[in-house]
Amino acid sequence: MSTPTRNYGVKLVRGPFVRLEPHREHCANEGELAHWVASLRREDPSLRLAADLFSGAGGMSLGLEQAGFRVVFSADHDPEAVETHAHHFGGMAVDWDLADADAVERVAATLRAVGVELLAGGPPCQPFSKAGRSGIRDRVRRGLRDPHDQRRDLWRSFLEVVRLAEPKAVVMENVPDMALDREMFIFRSIVEELEQLGYGVQGRVLDCRAYGIPQFRQRLIIVALRNGQVFEWPAVAEQAVNVWNAIGDMPEVEGGWRPAGGANGWTDYAGPVTAYQRLMRQGILGAESARLYDHITRPVREDDAIAFEHMDHETRYSQLPESAQRYRTDIFDDKYKRLDENHFSRTITAHIAKDGYWYIHPRQGRTITIREAARLQSFPDWFRFAGPPSAAFRQIGNAVPPLLAKQLGECLAVQLGKPAVAPSSSRQTGETLALWFAGRERLAVPWLKAQTAWQVVLAEMLLDRLPTLSAQLVWPSLSSWATPEAALAGAEDLREVASWVGRDDRVDRLLEIAAHVISDGGALASPLASSPAEGASLGADVGRDGAEEKAPAAGKSGHHAETAASVPRTVLDLALLVVPSASGDGEEPVIAGRGLLRVARRFFGDEQVLDRQNRLTDGRIAVSRLIGGADSARGAHLGLIELAASLCTTGTPACGECPLRESCEEGSATT
């Protein structure tokens, strides 16, 4: 670790502060909006109207308009983003807090009055406590809403607008973390509520690189169609676009340089070279074609300039000469990152408003400019951003790439023109699976109906991947060791039973785990555990004297990831699923292994579910859609595991016996 020996100052350069006039068709209130929309419909009766909530600067809006929709309403709670949106789009652009129930009802009434068909938005989706999840789950189950609960999360505000406005189509955008949570609680709740409102729902994690955007940026997209049609996702672009394809035409500038003319100043521009650059310059004519606006960035400190000189796109901050380091390398190993001109940009985030060290220009000793950041997000060069440079960077980082929104909009326009069909329902599928599982007497995986979590651990570690008949024959004897205490007390008998199927070599490790569980008061630690939420407790099922125990804090002795007495995450997940905690508020993790992806791929007819890179995203999304988010979800999940092991196996599945055959893409075609 190095310590800085010099202090370097940097000249403060403020602004320019961009002010944008409202669009010539801007509407100040609902009355003006209704009058304007009526005039639009007289000119084009087939016009499709859209609204954009949590709109930011308008990346989604711009793409939808390029796809043929007309965005007539937007809302955000960032004044500068609202100013940007109001400048570029007609209709109403409002700074309303959608956490406020009155604002939600006003928005919904406005959209319903003018006949908005498509509602788009990217509401923040914050994680919930287990107590909060329990309450929401109960409200969803009973079909209740909280329109006047001002503390509800913003995704619930968005769904409340959907419920009241009843648009024909809904598009929600969010970071993929929402679909990577172990329980996928928010995603499943959103799907469940939209289905209750009569929509057919699909979800997928889209990688912007695959759609002609020069940036590694993944986004979870949820599409809901009232006509029940299965949404057909945009086709992957034939050719990728790298950083230099996107910004290589822009002239060199020094960090901190500002053109004459303030906000109206420009940089001389020679013209586009690549197809992507020409796309970004479309619509810029006359004298403007030789001007490039907002090609400005922060000043560069003297020591930063020295550091930048030592870097290429592979250099980590910790690899810089000690004299060029001013941060602790054990904490800021990747503090600086130069972009690779022959590859994609890293994700442009709102953090770029605070510093640009993750976005150092591939050839110049500075961070990227506002216009370069906008290009990497696929904003065209004529699109300006209100406020100071920090506000522009923030708006760019928060935006949906317009080019992605355009392709989604084009697909939506096609889908809205199709006739209505009965929408598929996760709730119906889940209830069918749960009912089938409950009535099934002889299971291929008999410990799916175990009475204690320890029985699941025992079976998974001794019987996993055995032929079905062997597992069924051994399970009755093995299930008698219902607790870790019983396993230790009957160790020799346990070893003998395990030898019947050639698994006696696994007993020693299992006994170590049993001793560890007992000494730790009933808690099981996963080798992947990194926080209390990542571990799991078997509560009263394995605790001493039958007392329910809580999982200890991360880092407690015996809970290190490398301990030999830990239980694999996959085993823990199944134990939690089979035997929930006594309090009833434990997680029900979405499991994507055990053949479940195979079932999901066959059911939806979607090969992407099995793609190696998408198993933890699209694969788990597909599984969650099969099990639903209602009270039947746990039974449905267990039924799906049993289905994969018994009927929907590799090779030739027994489609004629499958409870899902009528809804299955592959099964219905073979029966």
TrEMBL record:
Q: Which reaction does it catalyse?
A: a 2'-deoxycytidine in DNA + S-adenosyl-L-methionine = a 5-methyl-2'-deoxycytidine in DNA + S-adenosyl-L-homocysteine + H(+)
The answer to whether UniProt assigns keyword Cytoplasm to this entry is: no
Q: Spell out the Basic and acidic residues composition-biased ranges.
A: 542-551
The answer, when asked if S-adenosyl-L-methionine is one of the entry's keywords, is yes
Write the record's keywords in alphabetical order, separated by commas: Methyltransferase, Restriction system, S-adenosyl-L-methionine, Transferase
Q: Which family does it belong to?
A: Belongs to the class I-like SAM-binding methyltransferase superfamily. C5-methyltransferase family.
The name on file for this protein is Cytosine-specific methyltransferase
